[in-house]
Amino acid sequence: MTAAEYNSCAEHYSDGVYRFILKNIKDDDTAKDIVQESYVRMWERVKEISYEKAKSYLFTTAYHTMIDHIRKNQRLTSMEGTYDSKYQDHNTFNDLKEIINEAVAKLPEIQRTVILLRDYEGYAYDEIGEITGLNESQVKVYIFRARAFLKQYIGSLDMVL
Questions:
Q1: What is the CA radius of gyration of the chain?
Q2: Which of 4, 22, 42, 147 can bridge 31 by disulfide, Cβ–Cβ 3.0-4.6 Å?
Q3: Measured over all CA atoms, what is the biggest interatomic distance in the chain, rounded to whole angstroms?
Q4: How far apart (Å, rounded) are the C-alpha atoms in residues 161 and 159?
Q5: pTM
């Protein structure tokens, strides 16, 4: 890949990678750091990556960098004084977007990742598998389970609202 192609990747894919990471991390500065780290890693391997595979490489690298960050923070965070939001079910919601974001946040990490890649970013099943390291059938199962949970969660809120 040439420097011009690299710059083109930065121009076209930065926003999508950032949105994907931000939906998972929910911290603006951390998401920016992960995106920047992904571009640094791509630059280090710019000679080995073809322009056609750059988008997939970026999302894969960002995903793995995010997982590394989450694991590192889990080891460093002490459990004293932490609050687990899964024990609180009496939230008030102002709009549908908040409800959906709350429901997506309750998904297990892998289900949240595949549903965001499929429904928010529009990736095909095989591309999601390439990014996450899963095979296509595993991706389909995780997406099915995530959608079933979201349907049940949002459906149960309809009865309350």
A1: 17
A2: 22
A3: 56
A4: 6
A5: 0.57
User: In this structure, how many other beta carbons lie within 10 angstroms of the beta carbon of residue 89?
Assistant: 8
Q: Around Cβ 86, how many Cβ atoms within 10 Å?
A: 7
Residue with token string 């080891």: 75
d(CA 29, CA 37): 12
Cβ-contact 104, 97 below 8 angstroms: no
Domains observed in the chain: 1-82 (1.10.1740.10), 91-161 (1.10.10.10)
Sign of CA dihedral 36, 71, 53, 125: negative
**Torsion, Cα of 105, 107, 110, 114 (10° steps):** -80
Cα angle 33-35-37, degrees, rounded to a multiple of 5:
65
Q: How far is CA 17 from CA 5, 23, 62, 161, in A?
A: 17, 10, 7, 34
Q: Which residues contact 156 (CB under 8 A, 6 or more apart)?
A: none
Read off the pLDDT of residues 78-121 as tens digits, 9 standing for 90 and up. 444 444 444 444 455 457 777 788 888 888 888 988 988 888 88
